[in-house]
Amino acid sequence: MDKKLEPIVKAVQGKFSAKFEEFRNEVHMFVNPDQIVDALTMLRDEHQFELLSALTAVDYYPQTSPRFYVIYQLTSLAQNLSLQLKVPVNGDKPKVPTVTRVYSVANWRERELFDMFGIEVEGHPDPRRILMPDDTEGHPLRRDFPLGYEEPQFTFNFDEIDLRKPYAKE
């Protein structure tokens, strides 16, 4: 672990009882959903993590409980440091609080979180879909989302799959 990160990790652990792991020189800290706003505020104000560089989720369904982890990737440009906060979220009615008051850039990323994973963001100022059409059913990045399949055309099945069919005039 980077020597500059050690006191930061200890401070977050002390205040939020956060667990951490290190993987390939990256530090991942685990924070409860009700603590994420306070943890991000502390990291921004006290430890110069001025940039929320990524916000996404991972769906481990059906392998683990909790089903989702919401991931907040923070960057300190002043210190040249990076840190991930991971928030466990159950699969029944997944929700996390909005962090738009801490990082305004979270606005569209939280909308994407709902649109792609179905994770509700409580208190979000504009909780509508951002990538998928409004009438889309389901959330495409969930593991239980049904995948469509279209067989690709190769030389062995060239005659069976005519790619011009949708465009051919009858």
Strand runs, count: 7
Reported by name, the CATH topology is Beta Polymerase, domain 2
Based on helices, strands and strand pairing, what is the structural class?
alpha/beta
Question: What is the number of helices?
Answer: 3
- State the fourth-level CATH superfamily: NADH:ubiquinone oxidoreductase Nqo5 subunit
What is the percent of helical residues?
10-25%
What percentage of the residues does DSSP assign to strands (E)?
A: 25-35%
The major β-sheet equals: 5 strands, mixed
Stretches where pLDDT is under 50 for at least 5 consecutive residues are none
* The CATH top-level class label: Alpha Beta
* Average pLDDT metric: 90
Q: Roughly how many Å is the radius of gyration? A: 21 Å
Order of helices and strands: HEEHEEEEHE
Strand line-up of the largest beta sheet: 1-2-5-4-3
Estimate the global geometry from the Cα principal axes.
elongated
Distance between the termini: 66 Å
CATH architecture: 2-Layer Sandwich
Domain module count: 1
Quick overview of this protein structure:
21% of the residues lie in helices and 25% in strands. By secondary structure, it is an alpha/beta fold.
